[in-house]
TrEMBL record:
Its main location: membrane. Belongs to the amiloride-sensitive sodium channel (TC 1.A.6) family. This is Uncharacterized protein. The keyword Transport applies. It comes from Cacopsylla melanoneura. Pfam families: ASC. GO terms for molecular function: sodium channel activity. Keywords: Ion channel, Ion transport, Membrane, Sodium, Sodium channel, Sodium transport, Transmembrane, Transmembrane helix, Transport. Gene3D superfamilies: Acid-sensing ion channels like domains.
Length: 151
Protein backbone atom coordinates (compact mmCIF):
# COMPACT_ATOMS: atom_id res chain seq x y z
CA UNK A 1 0.00 0.00 0.00
CA UNK A 2 2.90 2.37 0.59
CA UNK A 3 3.84 1.86 -3.07
CA UNK A 4 0.37 3.00 -4.15
CA UNK A 5 0.54 6.02 -1.86
CA UNK A 6 3.77 7.17 -3.54
CA UNK A 7 2.44 6.69 -7.05
CA UNK A 8 2.15 10.08 -8.65
CA UNK A 9 2.19 11.12 -12.27
CA UNK A 10 4.83 11.68 -13.71
CA UNK A 11 6.94 9.96 -11.05
CA UNK A 12 5.65 6.40 -11.28
CA UNK A 13 9.28 5.26 -11.19
CA UNK A 14 9.18 5.75 -7.41
CA UNK A 15 7.21 2.54 -7.15
CA UNK A 16 10.08 0.35 -8.43
CA UNK A 17 11.83 -0.17 -5.08
CA UNK A 18 8.52 -0.92 -3.33
CA UNK A 19 7.44 -3.36 -6.01
CA UNK A 20 10.81 -5.14 -5.92
CA UNK A 21 10.55 -5.46 -2.13
CA UNK A 22 7.01 -6.83 -2.49
CA UNK A 23 7.56 -9.47 -5.17
CA UNK A 24 6.42 -12.29 -2.87
CA UNK A 25 3.15 -10.50 -2.07
CA UNK A 26 2.23 -9.37 -5.60
CA UNK A 27 0.79 -12.75 -6.70
CA UNK A 28 -1.64 -12.54 -3.76
CA UNK A 29 -3.00 -9.32 -5.25
CA UNK A 30 -3.75 -10.75 -8.68
CA UNK A 31 -7.46 -11.04 -7.88
CA UNK A 32 -7.73 -7.53 -6.43
CA UNK A 33 -9.56 -4.96 -8.54
CA UNK A 34 -7.49 -1.84 -7.92
CA UNK A 35 -10.31 0.52 -8.94
CA UNK A 36 -12.69 -1.13 -6.47
CA UNK A 37 -10.01 -1.05 -3.79
CA UNK A 38 -9.38 2.67 -4.37
CA UNK A 39 -13.12 3.38 -4.14
CA UNK A 40 -13.36 1.33 -0.95
CA UNK A 41 -10.60 3.28 0.84
CA UNK A 42 -11.63 6.70 -0.49
CA UNK A 43 -13.11 8.86 2.27
CA UNK A 44 -16.78 9.52 1.58
CA UNK A 45 -17.92 13.00 0.67
CA UNK A 46 -19.25 13.79 4.15
CA UNK A 47 -15.87 12.91 5.68
CA UNK A 48 -13.98 15.25 3.33
CA UNK A 49 -16.16 18.35 3.07
CA UNK A 50 -17.29 20.54 5.94
CA UNK A 51 -19.28 23.39 4.44
CA UNK A 52 -19.67 24.78 0.94
CA UNK A 53 -21.25 27.85 -0.53
CA UNK A 54 -21.99 28.77 -4.13
CA UNK A 55 -22.94 32.34 -5.05
CA UNK A 56 -23.01 33.22 -1.36
CA UNK A 57 -25.55 30.55 -0.40
CA UNK A 58 -24.81 27.47 1.67
CA UNK A 59 -25.12 24.29 -0.38
CA UNK A 60 -24.66 20.60 0.34
CA UNK A 61 -21.07 19.90 -0.74
CA UNK A 62 -21.97 16.36 -1.74
CA UNK A 63 -24.58 17.66 -4.18
CA UNK A 64 -22.11 19.86 -6.07
CA UNK A 65 -19.02 17.63 -5.96
CA UNK A 66 -18.86 14.43 -8.02
CA UNK A 67 -16.63 11.40 -7.99
CA UNK A 68 -13.86 11.72 -10.59
CA UNK A 69 -11.35 9.11 -11.77
CA UNK A 70 -7.88 10.58 -12.40
CA UNK A 71 -4.32 9.41 -13.06
CA UNK A 72 -3.80 9.48 -9.30
CA UNK A 73 -6.93 7.61 -8.28
CA UNK A 74 -10.37 8.89 -7.36
CA UNK A 75 -11.16 12.35 -6.11
CA UNK A 76 -14.09 14.73 -5.80
CA UNK A 77 -14.49 17.31 -8.55
CA UNK A 78 -16.58 20.41 -9.00
CA UNK A 79 -18.18 21.39 -12.29
CA UNK A 80 -16.72 18.54 -14.33
CA UNK A 81 -18.46 16.92 -17.27
CA UNK A 82 -15.94 14.06 -17.19
CA UNK A 83 -16.85 12.94 -13.66
CA UNK A 84 -18.53 9.60 -13.04
CA UNK A 85 -21.91 11.39 -12.92
CA UNK A 86 -21.19 13.33 -16.10
CA UNK A 87 -20.15 10.43 -18.32
CA UNK A 88 -23.44 10.69 -20.20
CA UNK A 89 -22.91 14.36 -21.05
CA UNK A 90 -22.26 15.16 -24.72
CA UNK A 91 -19.01 17.09 -24.22
CA UNK A 92 -18.80 18.56 -27.70
CA UNK A 93 -22.41 19.78 -27.62
CA UNK A 94 -22.12 21.22 -24.11
CA UNK A 95 -18.81 22.97 -24.82
CA UNK A 96 -20.01 24.33 -28.18
CA UNK A 97 -22.97 25.88 -26.34
CA UNK A 98 -20.62 27.42 -23.75
CA UNK A 99 -21.78 24.99 -21.09
CA UNK A 100 -25.44 25.71 -21.57
CA UNK A 101 -27.87 22.83 -21.84
CA UNK A 102 -31.54 23.70 -21.76
CA UNK A 103 -33.07 22.90 -18.34
CA UNK A 104 -35.89 20.93 -19.93
CA UNK A 105 -33.46 18.75 -21.90
CA UNK A 106 -34.04 15.51 -19.94
CA UNK A 107 -31.75 13.64 -22.30
CA UNK A 108 -28.84 15.63 -20.85
CA UNK A 109 -29.99 16.07 -17.25
CA UNK A 110 -27.17 17.16 -14.94
CA UNK A 111 -24.96 18.41 -17.79
CA UNK A 112 -25.29 22.12 -17.05
CA UNK A 113 -22.01 23.76 -16.07
CA UNK A 114 -22.20 26.09 -13.09
CA UNK A 115 -21.32 29.67 -13.95
CA UNK A 116 -20.22 32.70 -12.02
CA UNK A 117 -21.12 36.04 -13.54
CA UNK A 118 -19.92 38.35 -10.77
CA UNK A 119 -16.73 39.18 -8.90
CA UNK A 120 -16.10 39.31 -5.19
CA UNK A 121 -15.38 37.16 -2.20
CA UNK A 122 -18.74 35.40 -1.94
CA UNK A 123 -19.73 35.09 -5.60
CA UNK A 124 -18.00 31.83 -6.51
CA UNK A 125 -17.31 28.53 -4.80
CA UNK A 126 -16.21 28.51 -1.18
CA UNK A 127 -15.20 25.21 0.41
CA UNK A 128 -14.15 24.28 3.93
CA UNK A 129 -12.70 20.82 4.40
CA UNK A 130 -13.18 18.76 7.52
CA UNK A 131 -10.13 18.30 9.68
CA UNK A 132 -8.18 15.21 8.71
CA UNK A 133 -7.84 12.48 11.35
CA UNK A 134 -4.07 12.43 11.86
CA UNK A 135 -4.18 8.89 13.29
CA UNK A 136 -5.17 7.68 9.80
CA UNK A 137 -2.19 9.23 7.99
CA UNK A 138 1.09 7.72 6.90
CA UNK A 139 2.95 10.50 8.74
CA UNK A 140 5.89 12.08 6.91
CA UNK A 141 5.75 9.26 4.35
CA UNK A 142 2.41 10.58 3.10
CA UNK A 143 2.59 12.52 -0.17
CA UNK A 144 0.09 15.21 0.87
CA UNK A 145 0.93 15.85 4.50
CA UNK A 146 -2.25 17.79 5.26
CA UNK A 147 -4.37 15.00 3.75
CA UNK A 148 -5.76 17.04 0.87
CA UNK A 149 -4.62 18.06 -2.57
CA UNK A 150 -6.42 20.71 -4.60
CA UNK A 151 -5.85 20.54 -8.33
Amino acid sequence: MSALSLMQKPTYYRMASHINASMMVIPLLSEVNISQFMLHVLPNCEEVFGTCSWHGKNVNCCEIFSLQKTEEGYCYSFNSLTSEEGKHCPLSEVLENEGIVEEDDVKHEGCQLRRNTAVGTVTGLEVYLNEYNMSETEGIEQRDLNGAKVM
